[in-house]
Amino acid sequence: MKILFNGCSGYLGQHFLYSLLQNVKDDDIYALFSSNNDFQSSVTSHPVFNHENKKRVNLIFAKVDLTNELDIDTFFREHSDPPFDICFHIAALSSPKDCHENETKARLVNVPIYFFEKLRHVPIVGLSTDQVYCGAKAPYDDSSIPSPVNIYGQTKLEMEHAILHDDLRTKPAICLRSSIILGPHAPFGNAHSTFLHFCKSRKDQETTFFTDEIRSVISVQDVVKVLFYFYTSVENGTFHVMKSRVYNMGGKDMVSRMDIANAVAKACDFSTDSFIPALKAEQGSNDFNALRSPLDISMISSQLEELVQTQFHSLVDIVRLSLIG
Prior knowledge:
The chain is 38% helix and 16% strand.
């Protein structure tokens, strides 16, 4: 197998790469990243690479700016023969605040059309977001109509259309609308921690948590399992008969920020007396240009669970797996 995936230095990308190094054999893995210059050395000095898998996979790193056509041309000229068997598109500008403050950059990064054009004959799995939904009609299922309220959600919906509705695409494409991904620290470092670690750090510190911002949080282990399902589908020849489509990818529970904080406190055995409940709806601004964020974008993900033949973890299990072990 010849695997291409971008965003390998981010939080999900690191967990997916770690799992690939543990589980695949005789594959060529092309790991793309655009920043984090120390990432390659962090991977190649890690025990999972040196002790177990160095002889089992051919890991090729490439620093590629997906907004730069010359970078893209150079990479594909050097590496696309023979063609890739599958591409996992994980890279994104995923901060709604950053997208709001720089719409041009958000669209260039999140909708890399030129990059997608190079992959028209390659199966692709792209990571989208629950923020394509507006928050007015939750819970959302796979057939729900998206209506994003911020630039981040808009650009990810544009990404979906660029992949799924390209008339020249010859291989199936799957887009996964992910909720907030939670889990342990990134295995190779230099990536953001998750909201769980923030909650744990607020022990005995007065902190406000919203009670009306509802999400179907999902464990990074479940997301990696989903990605591996599509990897295996290419390997066994079933991916090519799939229909291009979108799947919701959220966890078992529909929870608020306060629910998550309380679950962390319970698992780590500390008091929640310093946690202050608040309504995000009451934090709104009269400024029309202010960043908007949907409230309840909880999702039903039963079709993806059925496809992958798994049940996604509950919040309690996510906290235990991430912080307790």
